[in-house]
Each structure stands twice: as structure tokens, then as C-alpha cells.
Amino acid sequence: KGLRDTEHQRASPIPSQFSQEERVTMKESLKGAIQIPTVSFSPGEFNTTALAEFGEYIHKVFPTVFRTSFIQHEVVGEYSHLFTVQGSDPSLQPYMLLAHIDVVPAPDQGWEVPPFSGLERDGFIYGRGTLDNKNSVMAILQALELLLIRNYIPRRSFFIALGHDEEVSGAHGAQKISALLQARGVQLAFIVDEGSFILDGFIPSLKKPFAMVSVSEKGSLDLMLEVNKTPGHSSAPPKETSIGILAAAVSRLEQTPMPNMFGSGPLKMTLQQLANEFSFPANVIFNNLWLFWPLVSRLMEREDITNALVRTTTAVTMFNAGIKVNVIPPVAQATVNFRIHPAQTVQEVLKLAKDIVVDDRVQFHVLESFEPLPVSPSDDQALGYQLIRQTIQSVFPEINIVAPGICIAQTDSRHYTNLTTGIYRFNPLYLQPQDFRGIHGINERISVQAYETQVKFIFEFIQNADTEQRPVSHLHEL
Ligand SMILES: CCCCCCCC/C=C\CCCCCCCC(=O)N[C@@H](CCCCN)C(=O)O
Ligand SMILES: [Zn+2]
Ligand SMILES: [Zn+2]
């Protein structure tokens, strides 16, 4: 399986080796990026000073990118960046690399070092954005900078889109870039974004880490539940207050998980590809899912992360009520964040939620919703998927399995379905469960060595994408 060379294949790729000085520069540049607090607080509420500073910062640390004649740079939606890298062969369909420069807030509490310090400790750079997602922003531009310094000229054109509001919707960044490219008539061969990793230790009986390339992502429904009651004196309370009614409603939602959808969606493909990697007897079980699916489906529910793969999840994330200790509360509101399994729709989940609550004193307000994403191809003919696979095999030769999977979070790539059917979410980094807890959590960090490897991966990927051939079906055709 893979990509077939032709006479046009670049004779000798530029080796992905970096000098000691370059390696120091690249890690210092990442630290500088972490120190700029580009926080998204809520839709439309960003640290605009930091976003503007970030724009100046990338000019400073990647001067060659900005002065190269075949690269066009545009600022979109005030703070997002779009780079158009013109390849020498217009017959090759362009692709796009995505990343986002905004981060979620990070209060200091619980961090070993301040979250916007970018401090290095024991070989790790700490800070908000080191995994989500300034690592990708900086690694993409760093790899391009290093290629340009080595006089690289791409054959296949590509775009780099860096959104500034991914963490709150992408409405001002990714959506505008997508509309701009659509207006220019651009169609893309594929997109590569954040959203998955080389996963290590997420499934107990799996012997080795494997690379999961997410070919779909879950949808979402932000639902606000509201109960109104006439306020009054707390000395003569009604049998139920708005708070009590609402608490019972959200408790019912928490206690009644959405149906287990194991068997539909990309997870089946993931497990089939992994089957032989499990130790005995799990390998027998995963090789015979037709027989053991009830058992596997129950096993998947046990851990939070694997549970998120088999169903629409329900997270009560906000609860507001009450105005004074001796006043019966007039209104109580709770917000529930559902992450929708690819085999369900927003409308189905809304109906299920209402059927669980069954209380007409509770009003439902849909704040925002997004359908799950279609499944991108991962077969032998899928150029983007095969290029990712090829580059993983080169940069991580110890990884035996590259499997398609699903992203349990949302990414900016969801705004680009108008431009391509090939959307792949993969960050070339090892991720363990404790690293996952750092994403949106505390002590988010990346090892210096992992960041260098990410730069190396993109450095090779950009060159691999210059291939002019289509993927081939069978190895024996090589
Ligand atoms: C058998 C396979 C086991 C798989 C285990 C999966 C482990 C999880 C791996 C990776 C998931 C990390 C995803 C990182 C991307 C985070 C993107 C993000 O934070 N997006 C936000 C966007 C919010 C937009 C506003 N609604 C989000 O989803 O909240
Ligand atoms: Zn992200
Ligand atoms: Zn995030």
C-alpha cells in the first residue's frame, strides 16, 4: 500500500536534519509564542492585544516565510492568517495545513510554572498552548522557514490557515478563510488539522502505541435548560423551587446516558486494524467483533475517554441560579454540552434530552449546535491519508499501526467541508492519558524532543506532498 514514485519524484529530498543552533532557535521560538496570552474567553471576546502581538511575533521569528516571493500572506478577520504557498506545478491540486493561535484560559492555580511563562523544565516546555495548538502553528511555520532557507521550492501549492478563534467557534477566523477560498474557486485535495495523536496507554490491553488519524469528528449541542418560578419570601417556600426542579432535570440527564452506538461510525475500522496488536485474549475478542460486540461495547463504556467514542456524551458545564439567601429564586439556568456521535443528529439528541427530562416546567434553548462531520476516505486512494501514513512510517519507524479514528473534540476543520472531502486530524506527537488531561487542564506541556520531531514531520510531509502520483492500491504494483 502507499504512494508510487514516478520519474518526476524529487530526486533527492532535503534531509530533515537540523543543526544545534536551529534546534535551539526552534524551541526558543515556541517558548516566545507560549508567552503571548492569546486567550479566547467566549465567542467575540478575545485578547485582541495578544492576537495582534502574535501577528508581529511570527513576522519576527519566521522572516524567510514573509519575504519569499512565492508565498502570499493575508490577515483574515483581523487576527487570523492565511498563507498561500505557490507551487511550481499548477496541475497538482493544492492542500491545506491548519492550526489555531488562540488558547483556552489558564488560571495560575495548580500549575507547576505559570501557564504563560513558556518555561523549560527537565526537557519539557510548559504552558497553555504547548499541545493545543501553538505547537502546530509554530511547527508548520518553522518547518517551512527551514525548507525555504535550504532553497526549497514546492511543486504542489498549499495553504496554511491559522485561525484565531477556534476555541470559541471559528466564526471570525476559519469560517471567513473558508468563505474567502471558496469565493476564489479553490478546491483542496485534503486538509490536515489537529485532533488526534500517536496514542499511548489509552486502551489497557493494547501492547504498543498506535497512530490514530481522525477521519471524522463528533458534533455538538449546547443546550440551556431554564426553569422560571414566581419569587417570594424564603420563610414560606413552595414545595419545589426553580433550583430544585432544574437540579432534578440535569441529574436525570446525567444518570441517563445517551444510547451506546458501538458498531456504527469509524470506531469499528479503528478496532479492526488494531485487533492483532492486543494481547491474548483481547486479540481473539477484537478479531471476532461480530461475536463479542456486546462485551466490547460494555468494556468501552468503562473509561471516560473510550466511553466518549461509543456514544453522545452529556456534560453539565454551567449552573446559575439564586440572587439572595432569603429570596425564592425566580430563575435557574443550566447549560449542557452534548458531543454527538457520528451516527446521530442534533435533532435526535435534542429529542432524546427532552424525553429524558420529561418535565414541561423546564424550557429548552438551543444555544449552538453542529452536526457530526462526514467520514473522510482512508482507503488506498486517499492521497491525504496515505501521505500522513507515509510520513509517520518515515519519522516514527517504531509505529506499526496507523488507523483511522474519530476526534472526540471539535476542530476548525469542520468549517472547510465546502473545500474538500478529505479532512484528516493528526498531530505527530505521542500522547498519553496524563498528557490529554493537560489539554484545557493544568500543566499542559510538550517535550523539546517531541516538538523537534513535529517540525521534522512537517518538514518531510511538505516534501512528500510534492508527489504527483495518485496513491496506488497494492504494494506489488510498486
Ligand atoms: C480506540 C482509540 C482510543 C482513542 C482515545 C482518544 C483519545 C483522545 C485523543 C485526542 C483528543 C484530543 C483532541 C484535541 C483537540 C482539541 C480541540 C478543541 O479543544 N476544540 C474545542 C472547540 C470548541 C469550539 C466551540 N464550540 C472543543 O472541542 O471544545
Ligand atoms: Zn485545539
Ligand atoms: Zn482546545
UniProtKB/TrEMBL annotation:
Q: Which GO terms describe its biological process?
A: adaptive thermogenesis; amide biosynthetic process; amide catabolic process; amino acid metabolic process; lipid metabolic process; proteolysis
| Reaction it catalyzes | N-(9Z-octadecenoyl)-L-serine + H2O = L-serine + (9Z)-octadecenoate; N-hexadecanoyl-L-phenylalanine + H2O = hexadecanoate + L-phenylalanine; (5Z,8Z,11Z,14Z)-eicosatetraenoate + L-phenylalanine = N-(5Z,8Z,11Z,14Z-eicosatetraenoyl)-L-phenylalanine + H2O; N-(4Z,7Z,10Z,13Z,16Z,19Z-docosahexaenoyl)-L-phenylalanine + H2O = (4Z,7Z,10Z,13Z,16Z,19Z)-docosahexaenoate + L-phenylalanine
A single GO cellular-component term from the record reads: extracellular region
The record's listing under SUPFAM superfamilies reads: Bacterial exopeptidase dimerisation domain (SSF55031), Zn-dependent exopeptidases (SSF53187)
Q: Superkingdom, according to UniProt?
A: Eukaryota
Keyword Signal applies: yes
Pathway entry = Lipid metabolism; fatty acid metabolism; Amino-acid metabolism
**What keywords were assigned to this record?**
Carboxypeptidase, Hydrolase, Metal-binding, Protease, Signal, Zinc
- GO terms assigned for molecular function: aminoacylase activity; carboxypeptidase activity; metal ion binding
Ranges of residues in domain Peptidase M20 dimerisation: 216-357
Q: What is its EC number?
A: 3.5.1.114, 3.5.1.14
EC class of the enzyme, as a word: hydrolase
The residues that cross the membrane are none
- Entry-linked CDD domains: M20_yscS
Give the function comment from the record.
Answer: Secreted enzyme that regulates the endogenous N-fatty acyl amino acid (NAAs) tissue and circulating levels by functioning as a bidirectional NAA synthase/hydrolase. It condenses free fatty acids and free amino acids to generate NAAs and bidirectionally catalyzes the reverse hydrolysis reaction. Some of these NAAs stimulate oxidative metabolism via mitochondrial uncoupling, increasing energy expenditure in a UPC1-independent manner. Thereby, this secreted protein may indirectly regulate whole body energy expenditure.
Report the sequence similarity comment from the record.
Belongs to the peptidase M20A family.
Q: Could you identify this protein by its name?
A: N-fatty-acyl-amino acid synthase/hydrolase PM20D1
| Originating species | Myotis brandtii (Brandt's bat)
